[in-house]
Amino acid sequence: MKRIERLTSRQLERNRETDKKYQRKKRLDNKGWKSQQNLEYRIKNKEKVEAQRIINYNINNGKIKRMPCESCNSILAQAHHDNYSKPLDVRWLCASHHKLFHLSVSVVELQI
Ligand SMILES: [Zn+2]
Ligand SMILES: [Zn+2]
Q: Around ion ligand 1, which residues have CB less than 5 A away?
Protein backbone atom coordinates (compact mmCIF):
# COMPACT_ATOMS: atom_id res chain seq x y z
CA MET A 1 0.00 0.00 0.00
CA LYS A 2 2.66 2.49 1.09
CA ARG A 3 4.73 1.85 -2.02
CA ILE A 4 1.85 2.69 -4.33
CA GLU A 5 1.04 5.86 -2.39
CA ARG A 6 4.56 7.11 -2.93
CA LEU A 7 4.44 6.71 -6.69
CA THR A 8 3.95 9.95 -8.61
CA SER A 9 1.03 10.22 -10.96
CA ARG A 10 3.47 10.06 -13.87
CA GLN A 11 4.86 6.80 -12.62
CA LEU A 12 1.38 5.44 -12.13
CA GLU A 13 0.48 6.44 -15.65
CA ARG A 14 3.55 4.68 -17.00
CA ASN A 15 2.72 1.57 -15.00
CA ARG A 16 -0.73 1.48 -16.41
CA GLU A 17 0.59 1.86 -19.95
CA THR A 18 3.05 -1.00 -19.50
CA ASP A 19 0.32 -3.11 -18.06
CA LYS A 20 -2.01 -2.36 -20.94
CA LYS A 21 0.67 -3.26 -23.48
CA TYR A 22 1.44 -6.43 -21.59
CA GLN A 23 -2.20 -7.45 -21.44
CA ARG A 24 -2.66 -6.78 -25.13
CA LYS A 25 0.41 -8.80 -26.02
CA LYS A 26 -0.74 -11.62 -23.79
CA ARG A 27 -4.14 -11.65 -25.43
CA LEU A 28 -2.64 -11.74 -28.92
CA ASP A 29 -0.21 -14.51 -28.00
CA ASN A 30 -3.01 -16.50 -26.47
CA LYS A 31 -5.25 -16.03 -29.46
CA GLY A 32 -2.58 -17.18 -31.84
CA TRP A 33 -1.77 -20.15 -29.70
CA LYS A 34 -5.40 -21.14 -29.43
CA SER A 35 -6.21 -20.96 -33.12
CA GLN A 36 -3.03 -22.88 -33.89
CA GLN A 37 -4.10 -25.58 -31.44
CA ASN A 38 -7.57 -25.51 -32.87
CA LEU A 39 -6.25 -25.96 -36.38
CA GLU A 40 -4.03 -28.87 -35.37
CA TYR A 41 -6.93 -30.43 -33.52
CA ARG A 42 -9.16 -30.08 -36.55
CA ILE A 43 -6.61 -31.65 -38.86
CA LYS A 44 -5.88 -34.54 -36.50
CA ASN A 45 -9.53 -35.16 -35.72
CA LYS A 46 -11.05 -34.35 -39.08
CA GLU A 47 -13.46 -37.30 -39.02
CA LYS A 48 -14.45 -36.62 -35.43
CA VAL A 49 -15.08 -32.91 -36.05
CA GLU A 50 -17.10 -33.74 -39.16
CA ALA A 51 -19.17 -36.38 -37.32
CA GLN A 52 -19.86 -33.89 -34.52
CA ARG A 53 -20.83 -31.24 -37.02
CA ILE A 54 -23.29 -33.62 -38.70
CA ILE A 55 -24.84 -34.78 -35.44
CA ASN A 56 -25.19 -31.21 -34.15
CA TYR A 57 -26.80 -30.18 -37.40
CA ASN A 58 -29.33 -33.01 -37.11
CA ILE A 59 -30.05 -32.24 -33.47
CA ASN A 60 -30.59 -28.57 -34.28
CA ASN A 61 -33.05 -29.24 -37.06
CA GLY A 62 -34.90 -31.81 -34.98
CA LYS A 63 -34.01 -34.90 -37.02
CA ILE A 64 -32.26 -36.47 -34.07
CA LYS A 65 -33.60 -36.25 -30.56
CA ARG A 66 -31.32 -35.79 -27.59
CA MET A 67 -31.55 -38.79 -25.26
CA PRO A 68 -30.63 -39.14 -21.60
CA CYS A 69 -27.34 -40.77 -20.58
CA GLU A 70 -27.63 -44.50 -21.20
CA SER A 71 -25.83 -45.26 -17.93
CA CYS A 72 -27.41 -42.87 -15.44
CA ASN A 73 -30.31 -41.26 -17.31
CA SER A 74 -28.92 -37.76 -16.87
CA ILE A 75 -30.60 -35.44 -19.35
CA LEU A 76 -27.33 -33.60 -19.94
CA ALA A 77 -26.00 -36.27 -22.25
CA GLN A 78 -23.51 -35.82 -25.09
CA ALA A 79 -23.53 -37.68 -28.38
CA HIS A 80 -20.78 -40.27 -28.51
CA HIS A 81 -19.67 -41.87 -31.76
CA ASP A 82 -18.53 -45.45 -31.73
CA ASN A 83 -17.56 -44.99 -35.31
CA TYR A 84 -16.96 -41.58 -36.85
CA SER A 85 -17.68 -42.90 -40.30
CA LYS A 86 -21.26 -43.41 -39.13
CA PRO A 87 -21.97 -39.88 -37.91
CA LEU A 88 -25.65 -40.54 -37.18
CA ASP A 89 -24.93 -43.64 -35.14
CA VAL A 90 -24.49 -42.25 -31.64
CA ARG A 91 -24.83 -43.25 -28.02
CA TRP A 92 -25.88 -40.76 -25.39
CA LEU A 93 -23.62 -40.38 -22.40
CA CYS A 94 -23.40 -37.66 -19.76
CA ALA A 95 -20.05 -35.86 -19.37
CA SER A 96 -18.80 -38.21 -16.64
CA HIS A 97 -19.89 -41.44 -18.29
CA HIS A 98 -18.58 -40.17 -21.60
CA LYS A 99 -15.18 -39.56 -20.02
CA LEU A 100 -15.28 -42.93 -18.28
CA PHE A 101 -16.24 -44.64 -21.50
CA HIS A 102 -13.28 -43.16 -23.37
CA LEU A 103 -10.95 -44.05 -20.51
CA SER A 104 -12.10 -47.66 -20.54
CA VAL A 105 -11.78 -47.78 -24.31
CA SER A 106 -8.18 -46.59 -24.19
CA VAL A 107 -7.40 -49.08 -21.42
CA VAL A 108 -8.79 -51.89 -23.58
CA GLU A 109 -6.76 -50.64 -26.52
CA LEU A 110 -3.62 -50.62 -24.40
CA GLN A 111 -4.20 -54.19 -23.29
CA ILE A 112 -4.39 -55.54 -26.83
ZN1 LIG B 1 -24.22 -40.79 -17.05
ZN1 LIG C 1 -17.24 -40.20 -27.16
A: 69, 71-72, 74, 94, 97
